[in-house]
Structure to design on (256 residues):
């Protein structure tokens, strides 16, 4: 069941390089608004719908400089073209999926850099959920925009890739600094709690996290971003020791 969503831009993290705010979309999606503090440059990650993003941009005079896409699914790209037409923003996304997206101004591959004003992010290829899925990692502050590869207490379904690919992608993300803030694409944490508990019923960090999540959602507050340290301690998919275990967990979750 879809969880109630905040009605305004919330969850702002003040950092040395970027201010980051959530834009709730649909019933459980998030787009993320990034503002470079040094230059005022504005970017949005995964705008599945244009209207809520335009409302979030109103305090900035409707300015938008860059649109960052993680993968081709409609709930992540649906507002991109309208936003580009209305703001003149450049559109960046995975080169491997550009044939399934509006025409990209910047086609990105693994290891490339992407600038939001004076803040620079790194593109990480994370196949699994889709074959061309990418994530964006900024280190000032440490922030990961991971689309549908990694969720708080969960991970994306294997729509196109293999469990081995997803395992490698999650291992790559887990190697980022533990203080990294994890900005995923959906508010799935509460629904993920039950499966995580079934997978690891005796994990004390998980039990504490579940109580925190229930408290936040009872107040219709977002549960993301979490931190990578928290996910490594509580997320059964990040904690899987090998790809076969991950495959088993993902198959169980699909029918849970």
């Amino acid at each position: 069941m879809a969880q109630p969503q905040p009605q305004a831009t919330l969850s702002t993290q003040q950092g040395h390089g970027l201010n980051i705010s959530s834009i709730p979309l649909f019933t459980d999606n998030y787009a993320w608004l990034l503002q470079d503090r040094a230059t005022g440059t504005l970017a949005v990650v995964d705008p599945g719908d244009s209207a809520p993003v335009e409302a979030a941009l109103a305090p900035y005079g409707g300015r938008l400089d860059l649109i960052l896409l993680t993968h081709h699914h409609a709930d992540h790209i649906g507002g991109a073209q309208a936003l580009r037409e209305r703001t003149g923003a450049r559109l960046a996304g995975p080169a491997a999926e550009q044939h399934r997206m509006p025409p990209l101004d910047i086609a990105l591959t693994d290891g490339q850099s992407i600038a939001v004003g004076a803040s620079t992010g790194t593109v990480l290829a994370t196949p699994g959920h889709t074959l061309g899925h990418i994530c964006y990692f900024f280190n000032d502050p440490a922030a990961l925009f991971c689309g549908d590869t990694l969720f708080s207490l969960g991970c994306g379904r294997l729509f196109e890739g293999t469990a081995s690919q997803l395992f490698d992608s999650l291992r790559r993300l887990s190697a980022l600094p533990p203080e990294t803030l994890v900005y995923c694409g959906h508010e799935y944490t509460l629904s993920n709690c039950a499966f995580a508990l079934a997978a690891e019923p005796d994990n004390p960090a998980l039990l504490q996290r579940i109580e925190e999540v229930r408290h936040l959602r009872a107040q219709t507050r977002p549960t993301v971003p979490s931190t990578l340290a928290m996910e490594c301690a509580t997320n059964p998919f990040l904690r899987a020791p090998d790809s076969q275990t991950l495959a088993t967990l993902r198959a169980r979750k699909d029918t849970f």
User: Anything to note?
Assistant: Helices lie at 50-57, 74-77, 80-87, 163-174, 189-199, 204-218, 228-234, 243-254. The radius of gyration is 17 Å. The domain at 13-254 is CATH 3.60.15.10 (Metallo-beta-lactamase; Chain A).
